[in-house]
Amino acid sequence: MIRLKAVNLGYQDDTVLRNVNLSISKGEFVGIIGLSGAGKSTLLTSIIANVAVQEGEYQVFGDDITTLKRKGLRDMRSRIGFIFQGYNLVNRLSVLHNVMSGMLKTIPLQRSLIKFYSKSELAKAYEYMQVVGIEDLAMKRCDELSGGQRQRVAIARALAQEPEVLLADEPVAALDPKSATLVMDILGRINSRYKVTIIANLHHLDFANKYCRRILGIADGAIAFDGQPREMTKTVLNRIYRNTTTFSDEERVDHLQMLRKTACAGTPMGGGELETLSEAAA
Amino acid sequence: MDLNRLRKEASPFKIQTGSALVVVTVLFAMSWRNTEMSLPELFQGWHHMQSYMAGNPDIAGSSFFPPSFIARDFTVYLRAMFETIEMAVVALVLSVLLAFPLSLLASRNILKVLLPGRTGIPRFVRRSIYVSAMLLANVFRSINEIVWALLFISAIGLGPMAGILALAIHTGGVLTKLLAEGNEAIDPGPVEAIIATGASFPKVILYAVLPQTMPHFVSMVLYRFESDVRSASILGFVGAGGIGFYLFDKIRAFENGDVSTIILIIVATVWCIDKASAVIRRKYI
Q: Is residue B34 in some structural domain?
């Protein structure tokens, strides 16, 4: 579905990711890990053609995305759901209208003008609100919701697109542990129930290990790891979370301590590995 | 940053603030002198205004007080006020129809949605559209309603239609600027999200831009309605319809009792509109 061959990604003259070779097929659940600023979001947003492809061959659904123009671009984007880090909901609109905005591609303009939806459109929206458990909030305005609820509205909106691929940019970073688990469970269910390919940027290693069947690690402007969670070694983790110029030594230690906390909660890594990590950081 | 620098930078006494104050003071003083403003003159002339408002005791109706009340005239004024409001309503709808699309073209963030692209050509096109839309709006709004009314009267003759078109054009220009400012202040997140669903430009406007700008939009349109009513009550001075015709007529004839009746009607109307707008505004938060 998504194929990158020797791709360089960046903004203007700045190259963020170099020589990316990647192939993601239908039904995968991929987690992308890496430090803040490593290029996780760049990789994710490049899939909906929001980042300049500076070099290489970038295919989504078999089309070269650099050649897509207005209509082609809209068609491609409508097949990909995107869950944004800051939810990006319209706070003044009700949950229902926000969910419906995912279906805009198929709702005729004159009906979207007066926000009038057909029976089947409403039924679809209702189904997706049920999937994320917000059907009772349908007529509430989004600014009345909690962070976890907003994130679920954002997921329902992405689902309303009936996407083949769902991209999630740090879907749980701003949520408390309980909401975070709920949201990750929902993503896992969507992946198995609708066979939607999911690619998510994750800060929590334990979530990546628990839910993803494949992990991409980004470090030094390149993909440093691509494999199953159990293939992840401490050397790789060291490379992803240590070798960075954007973080100071103290920040690295902080990050590792945070990792230790999340790791202890979910015990994805052996204690021995963690100690090695901390030593390496110190 | 060390503490000394922080103290310096956090200090409210800055050269910029001081020099701005000096510039404004000098500008004010210079303008005051050049325009021959003089408070003593106002005090000396005060009694003239008093005697003007009191009128000539020998001529009935030449005093502002009490306001005259002759049922037949009063109905005529009320009907004229009603026509004034109708003019403002039609003008407002026309001006929104003009200003809304123009305001989209006068908002840089909206243009980026309409014509995406980081290369030179789309940037140049965006810039040209933005500048032309702004220029057009500036021309519309910098020419006063009265001047527009005179221009339209020369084309279609005396009457409310000339006044309506004059108001519509002027308010169209004002609203373009006000709405464009609202458009540029929106949160780009929802816009990005709706674009990512593959929606076309009009749907992005409908679902991501309008819901966000709605409170500002409603507020601005209501404010312009109120000011359209005020302007429309003056347009009659040049024969462009509304209550202004009677106001001008009575002022020239020194029938001051009628003048104050008309003024009271206008004030009451504007007050009512203001109250009604406040209620509507509260609904659109």
A: no
Instruction: Determine, yes or no, domain membership for B44.
Output: no
- Tell me how far CA of residue B226 lies from CA of B88, B101, B171, B220, in angstroms: 8, 22, 11, 10
What pTM did the predictor assign?
Answer: 0.82
**Residue B114: which residues within 8 A CB-CB, separation 6 or more?**
B104, B201
Assess if residue B60 is contained within a domain. Answer: no
**Closest residue in B to A162 (Cα–Cα):** B197
Taking only the tens place, the pLDDT of each residue in A149-161 is: 999 999 999 999 9
Residue B22, chain A, CB below 8 Å: the answer is no
CATH number assigned to the domain comprising residue B227: 1.10.3720.10
Q: Could you tell me if residue B68 is inside a domain?
A: no
- How are beta strands A197-201 and A165-168 bridged, if at all? parallel
Q: Does A111 touch chain B (CB under 8 A)?
A: no
Q: State how far Cα A195 lies from the chain centre.
A: 16
Would the ipTM clear 0.90, i.e. be above it? no
| Residue B193 Cα, gap to closest chain A Cα (Å) | 6
Our CA-based measurement puts residue A161 at a distance from the nearest CA of chain B, in whole angstroms, of 7
Instruction: Please state, in angstroms and rounded to a whole number, the distance separating the CA atoms of residues B248 and B253.
Output: 9
